[in-house]
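Teaching assistant's notes for section 4

Start the section by putting this record on the projector. Ask students to predict, before seeing the second block, whether Caveolin will look compact or extended. Collect guesses on the board.
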Amino acid sequence: MMMVSDDCLVECKIDDSDEEQISAPPPPPPPEFASKASTPAPEPPTPPAEPTPSTPSTPSTPPRPINRDPNGINKHLKVEVSDVLAEPTTPYSMDGVWIYSLVGFEKTRIWTYRCLSLLFAVPLAFLCGFILALLACLRVWFLVPCVQLSNTFLPCLRSVFICAVNVFVAPFCMSVALCCSQISILLSNKDFIHKREKDTV
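Reveal the predicted structure now:
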């Protein structure tokens, strides 16, 4: 019969209490009984599968209309029926007449705009695009180069013009001014009275 030595025995404490205890890892076995193969690492716990969203049985909500005027350049065209048609408390028409008038106003406004835009929207859009492209082309290739060339050459022309004025025009004007400065005109009351008498005769 084989006897087991006291070194191979492991002391374990037994707790009879009803409280839940946190499970601690078991102590390692003695080196005599330890296997040479490495124990595999415990696999990480798999996360619980996320519940798939159930497809609602109700129909999906309609998409919101696209804002075709993000900069608000045509806010003044947002005209409602109440901005045009309004009845006082008394007198007033029958309910059917009022309801059909509102419906007729809205439908006429909407469908007239749609028909006119069907006829004129595409040609006018092409025309606006052409005019804008023409203006941009003239600005890029004609107006701005002319302004830049003027800013480049005008200082040279200014210096030449100043030299011409100082050399030719200024001496001539000064000579004429000196000649005219010696001229004096004297008027007396007798001459004025004599001239008035001649005019009256």
